[in-house]
Amino acid sequence: MGDARRRGSWGAGWGALAVAVAVVGCLAAVVWALTGVRGTPEGMLGAVPGAADSPAGPGRAAGSTVERIVVEGPAVERTNRSGRSGADGARAWEPAACWVELAGERVSCGWVRVPLAEGSRVSLRVAVLRVAPRRRGAPLPPLLYLGGGPGHSVIARLSRDLRPLLSLAEERELIFVDPRGTGFGRPTLECRESGPLEDSLRRCHERQSVDVDPSEFTTAAGVRDVEAVRRALGIERWDVLGTSHGARWALTALRDAPQAVRAVVLDSPVPLEVDLIAQLGSNAQRALDRLAELCAAQPPCAEAFPSPRDDLLRVAAELREAPLRTSGTVIDMDRFVRGVLGLLYAPARAAYLPQLLHRAAAGDFEPFLQLEAGLAVDEFFLGAHLSVQCAEEAPFTSLEAIQRADQRVATELRAVLSGRSYLEDCRLWKVRPAAARENVAVRSEHPVLILSGELDPVTPPDYAEAVRANLPAARWLRVRGASHGLATTACGLRWIDAFTRAPEKELSLDCPDLGVAAPSPLAPTGELQVELPLRFLTSAPDREELERLQGTP
User: Fold this and answer.
1) Is 512 left (phi over 0), alpha (psi -120 to 50) or beta?
2) Gap between the Cα atoms of 253 and 374, Å rounded
3) Over the stretch 429-474, which tens digit does the pLDDT of each residue have?
4) How far lies 295's CA from each of 303, 304, 336, 510, in Å?
5) Where are the domains positioned within the chain?
6) % of the chain surpassing 70 pLDDT
7) Does residue 319 contact residue 331 with C-beta atoms inside 8 Å?
8) What is 25-282+376-397+420-528's CATH number?
9) CA-CA distances (angstroms) from residue 259 to 230, 262, 465?
């Protein structure tokens, strides 16, 4: 396949872009990352490259670091005979020194104690970060953000890829909650056991089960947690913004605590009723195919890179037969395919994919290595992830369903993209299956804004359509040229701000970043498609281009 060290025209500019890459947490890449970990003798299950959106394994990306989240204090506490947890009660607000610095913002942090299960005398601490409104006397309700994963700390990511959300604090309080079992709460369901995956997962489950029942770390429990937070903070109703799995969390809140919610934004949503595990591979394949179609529609891209799909399949097949050893690292099929999928999560990165694939097919892996080296590595709480997925997804799928869905995946990619590894992992991570209603669509009359991107490799526009079918007061905005997680983009933030200011009114779609003039306003129950420009690049970026890309999540 040629010399992987050949640089072509890629130089320092590409390295700078790599360092600037933002990360957006998401579920699918956890699966792809675990595929790499499964074949990694060292294990180290606590770190997933690229914050689960752009897995670069196996192992860690060269030059990357893991930010270890450390919280002092007991993991769990038991209530006294009165049923109260310490002097402040089971749901009292406990101030704490803030775990992240957000320059220019008025921030306060703390914990809220919640029972492990309804009626349980064992209590957990849920970590909360509050951003005060910049304007005194802010007229808007607080906005609760529910992040993706599951298995990531929202609070830890606020100083990085989620920082754009802080622009929403102009006239409202923002509230960020780490899901139970993650981040700065106590306890955390992290897995730091080493060794083969099967053995390390089993040992991690045994260790965690000494203090808590992993079956209690579910999305429905997360709704009870944020309800406890709302009451502890004295909030009557709030708006809710959920991204990816956070959108499923928000849907569950609409079902279980509708009285607490005024309006909801569902960004890249996951419907409760879809077979997500079975469709992981076909969803990724759909996005890769759509990328190739968009390249073919742009003459410069089509001329320079006539077959992105064939390039990917060729490289995958060759790496499967003979992994590449270069510069002290090994690039195998899993690592390369998962890295490519990670690039799909933001248009700024996807714009380079046809070029990267073409170079790799010619034996030049320098663009891939340089981008991968700049990806962040977030601490990942695998036990929390599996507790959710093994209760809420795995019981409602089957090997047969996965195999049928995988028929839509290219043979060369099937081993990497398939969700079947969940069945093996959930056999080891033993939790109770969720109730049947966790596989039933949520219906609500609340005003809802749904955002979806056409290049989303895990929550495709079809999922947004399925969610909307059961929300009669929902409006759906489909964004061409966008991918997974629009909430941190310039246009997404504009739309979220406008919608939550007046959820019952038409939504103006004016945004300077739109590739075409803004269409007519989006009606309260309407559906529209808008376009963000995605121009595939045929050369390495210069500094001016880098600055533009660095400003685009």
Assistant:
1) alpha
2) 36
3) 999 999 999 999 999 999 999 999 999 999 999 999 999 999 999 9
4) 9, 10, 20, 27
5) 25-282+376-397+420-528
6) 79
7) yes
8) 3.40.50.1820
9) 12, 8, 25
